[in-house]
Amino acid sequence: MNDDVLAALSELFPDLPSEVMAKVEVTPARDAAHGDMATNAALVAAKPTRMAPATLAAALVEKLLAHPEILAAEVAGPGFVNLRLAPGVLLAVLPTVLRHGVRFGD
Predict the structure, then answer these.
(1) Residue 11 and residue 88: Cα distance in Å, rounded?
(2) Which long-range contacts (CB under 8 A, 24 or more apart) does 98-102 make?
(3) How many other C-beta atoms are found inside a 10 Å radius of the C-beta of residue 31?
(4) What 3 state SS string does 45-91 have?
(5) How many CB atoms lie within 10 A of CB 25?
(6) pLDDT tens-digit readout, 2-15
(7) CA-CA distance, 63 to 65, in Å (whole number)?
(8) Predicted local confidence at residue 106, as pLDDT
(9) How many Cβ atoms sit within 10 Å of the Cβ of residue 84?
(10) Quick one: CA dihedral 17, 84, 86, 56, positive or negative?
């Protein structure tokens, strides 16, 4: 999912410095009611692009909704983006999780 967010951000801002892109995180949502994943991409890219985080987040949401793996995307708070993944995305990871057991994610 991180690659999808970075690709969408790159489409919007092709000249965004790599050090900014390196600060983008896609993490599990703190509250499952808000989605499966969340990203700080709009907050990280706001200053270098001279855009308000919420405006940038809205543009990012529009790009991310074009991905079939993303069921829903919405602006949250001051510029975060919450993502809800299609069920198939989560199911596709299950064999890897089972194979790695407690080491999954290391």
Answers:
(1) 25
(2) none
(3) 8
(4) HHHHHCCCHHHHHHHHHHHHCCCCCEEEEEEECCCEEEEEECHHHHH
(5) 14
(6) 899 999 999 999 99
(7) 6
(8) 78
(9) 17
(10) negative
Gap between the Cα atoms of 37 and 24, Å rounded: 13
Which tokens hold the place of 102? 């407690």
User: How far is residue 89's CA from residue 41's CA, in Å, rounded to a whole number?
Assistant: 21
Give the pLDDT band (50/70/90) at residue 77. Answer: confident
- pLDDT tens-digit profile of 80-91? 999 999 989 888
Strand-pairing partners, residue 83, are 37, 73
Rounded Cα distance between 32 and 53, Å, is 23
Residue type, 77: G
Max CA pair span of the chain: 44
Return mean pLDDT, the chain.
93
Say what the alpha-carbon torsion angle 44, 8, 70, 30 is, to the nearest 10 degrees.
-10
Cα separations (Å) of 5 from 22, 97, 98, 103?
A: 12, 22, 26, 25
